[in-house]
């Protein structure tokens, strides 16, 4: 007996097939796309090392929703719940401050053994790991500069931290049998207009060259660099701007990371993907949602998310793009934030995979712009939801908003007692 999910799926499938869309192939493709879940959504970017240090680097988390994780075990069990509500096999993206160790170790001394707990857990759960050196929330980053600092000793500390991070990432890649993407983001910049824009950039270029001088096989570790237009306290000048890293990555064979929240308010990254991948081998995305500023809101299925997904599909760019999420909303349930974000990313990709791309491209070449607009608009209301439901069903995860029941149960049984156990701060 067919149930409602399957009946709706078969009806929807027929509609897509009339336009030559291979729905089963689309689902197979979607099942193979890994999304990197950023661990820092789980605890408001606090981490486990040097817990006394406030969040720095010109980024901010607002909200104090109860139950954020405060130990590696809590964070992993929250991630396990999120992953059980999301179809497919994915990756988890760690920052260096999430080391799982009782040792009092500073960032420049970190070693793979400090992440043993994460590696074992990833193996047990069939997950990949990505990594980030943490160049913020530390006394040596307090004046807003790290790798471009004018003091050679401070610069060296951060160079050593990034080198240590790449060795940790390499061990992830070796142990887990899939490459770890290590993203380098640093907050360096000035609040007000600088006199000398050149020297910090020259120092950053030199520091990065030093960090990347140690050859690491890309089978295990892929280095990425992430630009930013401005941060809180670096409104006038950021050393690692988009142009800086475009030049750096292209000239050094490194991967560019585009964060959707790191550009001018009306500037979108979707329009950059085909240009960058025309010349670069691969790309890393930090899919985020800036609201008025780089506010890192949970991604919704808005026009830009759909356009990013369409670009990746229409240009056949998925095999060369690593998709990571980057938002941190402390005002809602931390597990729900992951689930909403990843499921939205996947739904946007599914919608793109269900478009009659070849037909649309042909129409465009024929300059039939009327049909192009008509079909693209009509396809927006095609029943992709029925295909998505079947995808969730096949993957053994809750269909539609049923996942919220699990999150609410967990909140009651785990998060509320966890928060109560912490007592009054
Ligand atoms: C915590 C992350 O490294 C951070 O969000 C970075 O990727 C960024 O986007 C900073 O604005
Ligand atoms: Mn980012």
Automatic annotation (TrEMBL):
Keyword annotations of the record: Cytoplasm, Isomerase, Manganese, Metal-binding, Rhamnose metabolism
Tell me the compartments it is located in: Cytoplasm
Its needed co-factors are: Mn(2+)
Q: Which Pfam families match?
A: RhaA
Identify one Gene Ontology CC term for this UniProt entry: cytoplasm
Please state the pathway this protein functions in, per its UniProt record.
Answer: Carbohydrate degradation; L-rhamnose degradation; glycerone phosphate from L-rhamnose: step 1/3
Record function comment: Catalyzes the interconversion of L-rhamnose and L-rhamnulose.
Protein name as it appears in the record: L-rhamnose isomerase
Question: What organism is listed for this UniProt entry?
Answer: Saccharibacillus brassicae
Gene behind this protein: rhaA
């Amino acid at each position: 007996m067919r149930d409602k999910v399957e009946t709706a799926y078969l009806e929807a499938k027929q509609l897509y097939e009339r336009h030559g869309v291979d729905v089963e192939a689309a689902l197979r493709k979607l099942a193979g796309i890994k999304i990197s879940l950023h661990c820092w959504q789980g605890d408001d970017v606090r981490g486990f090392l040097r817990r006394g240090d406030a969040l720095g680097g010109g980024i901010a988390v607002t909200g104090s929703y109860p139950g954020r994780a405060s130990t590696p075990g809590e964070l992993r069990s929250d991630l396990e719940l999120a992953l059980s509500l999301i179809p497919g096999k994915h990756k988890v993206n760690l920052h260096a401050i999430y080391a799982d160790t009782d040792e009092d170790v500073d960032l420049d001394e970190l070693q793979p053994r400090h992440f043993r707990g994460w590696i074992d857990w990833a193996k047990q759960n069939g997950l990949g790991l990505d990594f980030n050196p943490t160049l913020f929330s530390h006394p040596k980053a307090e004046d807003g500069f790290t790798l471009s600092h004018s003091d050679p000793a401070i610069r060296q500390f951060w160079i050593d931290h990034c080198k240590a991070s790449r060795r940790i990432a390499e061990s992830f890649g070796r142990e887990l049998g899939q490459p770890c993407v290590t993203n380098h983001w640093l907050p360096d910049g000035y609040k007000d207009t600088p006199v000398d824009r050149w020297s910090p950039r020259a120092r950053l270029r030199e520091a990065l060259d030093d960090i990347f001088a140690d050859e690491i096989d890309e089978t295990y570790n892929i280095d990425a660099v992430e630009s930013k237009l401005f941060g809180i306290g670096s409104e006038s000048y950021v050393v690692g701007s988009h142009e800086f890293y475009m030049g750096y990555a292209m000239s050094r064979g490194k991967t560019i990371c585009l964060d959707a929240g790191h550009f001018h308010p009306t500037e979108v990254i979707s329009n950059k993907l085909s240009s960058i991948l025309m010349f670069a081998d691969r790309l890393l995305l930090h899919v985020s949602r800036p609201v008025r500023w780089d506010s890192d809101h949970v991604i919704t299925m808005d026009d830009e998310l759909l356009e990013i997904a369409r670009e990746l599909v229409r240009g056949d760019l998925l095999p060369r793009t690593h998709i990571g999420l980057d938002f941190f909303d402390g005002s809602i349930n931390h597990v729900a934030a992951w689930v909403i974000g990843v499921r939205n990313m996947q739904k946007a990709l599914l919608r793109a995979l269900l478009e009659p791309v070849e037909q649309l491209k042909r129409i465009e070449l024929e300059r039939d712009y009327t049909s192009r607009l008509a079909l693209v608009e009509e396809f927006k209301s095609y029943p992709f939801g029925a295909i998505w439901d079947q995808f969730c069903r096949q993957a053994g995860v809750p269909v539609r908003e049923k996942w919220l029941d699990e999150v609410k149960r967990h909140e009651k049984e785990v998060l509320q007692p966890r928060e109560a156990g912490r007592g009054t701060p």
